[in-house]
Write a structure and sequence with these properties.
single chain; alpha+beta; two-stranded antiparallel sheet
């Protein structure tokens, strides 16, 4: 299935919600996982 969603879109979208990624885990060449948390000033 073709899509415009890529890692840049996935990583930039939480920034709009005042979230930051603190961990990135590469599962393999195709898959990775992110951990997002609220920015300190929004906790």
């Amino acid at each position: 299935m073709a899509t415009d969603v890529n890692k840049d879109v996935i990583r930039s979208t939480p920034l709009l919600l005042h979230l930051v990624d603190v961990k990135v885990y590469d599962v393999d060449k195709k898959w990775s996982a992110l951990k997002d948390v609220w920015r300190k000033e929004y906790r």
